[in-house]
Amino acid sequence: MNCLFCEIVNGEVGGSIVFEDEVSTAFLDHRPLFPGHCLLVPKKHFETLTDLPVELVGPFFQNAQLLAHAVKVALEAEGSFVAMNNRVSQSVPHLHVHVVPRRRKDGLKGFFWPRNKYADQVEMQGVQKLIQTAIATIKKQS
After folding, report:
1. pTM of the model
2. Second-level CATH architecture of 4-103+116-141
3. Do residues 50 and 59 touch, judged by C-beta distance below 8 A?
């Protein structure tokens, strides 16, 4: 099976990993809505939310909650947008949750959003480090 997200999880393809545990991996989206836009994926391959075993739902969404908090803190955002597609508009057929930092009047309206690229690898790595640091700090406080 050729799955880009499985390849990132397995280290076969590079990804800007911001979080990883036994259940899931999170990495920066390479075409973010805003810097800090992350994708959280289960480590095992499941195409949609309905395919995710019930025993993984809680741990997976606890990680989504952690990532939403970390992205907000790391990017000094006012909030976050957390979303997932199931098959329709799912560019990679592997369950993934989008976590996007948000600010009032940031220009996102409806579901027609322009994608942007990071200016360069240095910017992407800087954002990656900010989120990793925020996750470490939040986990220490828990």
Report:
1. 0.85
2. 2-Layer Sandwich (3.30)
3. no
What is the arrangement of strands in the sheet containing 79-83, beginning at the earlier edge strand?
A: 17-20, 24-28, 38-42, 97-102, 79-83
Tell me whether strands 79-83 and 38-42 are parallel, antiparallel or unpaired: unpaired
Residue 139 to residue 65: CA distance in whole angstroms: 12
What residue segments make up the domains of the chain, in order of their start?
Answer: 4-103+116-141
Q: Are 67 and 39 in contact (CB under 8 A)?
A: no
Model confidence pLDDT, tens digit, residues 116-130: 889 999 999 999 999
Complete DSSP assignment for 46-83: -SSGGGS-HHHHHHHHHHHHHHHHHHHHHTT-SEEEEE
Measured in whole angstroms, the distance separating CA 13 from the mean position of its chain's CA atoms is 16
Q: What is the DSSP string of 115-135?
A: ----SSHHHHHHHHHHHHHHH
DSSP state, residue 113: -
Query: How far, in whole angstroms, is CA 98 from its chain's centroid?
Result: 5
